[in-house]
Amino acid sequence: MDSLPSLHVLSIKIPVSDLAVSRRFYTDVFALREVLQWPDEDGTIRGVALAGTGDTLIALREDPAAAVATRDFGFVNLGVPDVAYLAGCAAHLDALGIAHTGEISGADGRLVGFHDPDHHELSFYARTHPGVRNDASRAVTAPPQAASTAQPSTAPGPPPRPGPSVRRTSDMP
């Protein structure tokens, strides 16, 4: 195989400090439904996958240290069909008591920004024009050899953690 096939995003995993609080937040704010759970060896649920964003799942994994380390990081912007929907999104956040920005400019559109319980940046985002504003971008460059000679790291790392089992919410009593 000489080239990659067409790729798509299956899921986005977000570290959270309290799974119960974040599960409720993400299902309420984005009208998502839980479709998978990841229990630890003792049966404690430490991760969930939430559906409702097209083909991409939003996964939440309880990892307090990672949640703190990624505070203020923006993991995901959720698109709306048109800028006219942003006022309704802001009203939805108001109804849930979630502080948010007004409608502001983004790289290629308009957005309403807010934070999850771990202070990760989120937004409802409407693309308003093709391409990215000149003042909102810069070229991405890589060292010439990086793309063609990349080798897997041989640096020692933490030992692999045993993989959790997976349960579909629909298969549970």
List the helices and strands and how they pair.
Blueprint: E1 11-16, H1 19-30, E2 33-39, E3 45-53, E4 56-62, H2 64-69, E5 74-79, H3 86-95, E6 100-105, E7 109-115, E8 121-127, H4 146-149, E9 167-168
Parallel strand pairs: 1-4, 5-8
Antiparallel strand pairs: 2-3, 2-9, 3-4, 6-7, 7-8
Structural commentary:
- With 173 residues, the protein is an alpha+beta fold.
- It has one domain: Roll (2,3-Dihydroxybiphenyl 1,2-Dioxygenase, domain 1).
- It contains four helices and nine strands; from the N terminus they run E-H-E-E-E-H-E-H-E-E-E-H-E.
- It has helices spanning 19-30, 64-69, 86-95, 146-149; strands spanning 11-16, 33-39, 45-53, 56-62, 74-79, 100-105, 109-115, 121-127, 167-168.
- The strands form two sheets. The chain has a five-stranded mixed β-sheet.
- A hairpin with a 2-residue loop joins strand 3 and strand 4 (56-62).
- It is globular, with a radius of gyration of 19 Å.
- The model is unreliable at 157-173 (pLDDT under 50).
- Give the C-level CATH assignment: Alpha Beta
Radius of gyration: 19 Å
Domains, number: 1
Query: What would the CATH topology be?
Result: 2,3-Dihydroxybiphenyl 1,2-Dioxygenase, domain 1
CATH architecture: Roll
Strand content: 25-35%
CATH-assigned homologous superfamily: 2,3-Dihydroxybiphenyl 1,2-Dioxygenase, domain 1
| Main β-sheet description | 5 strands, mixed
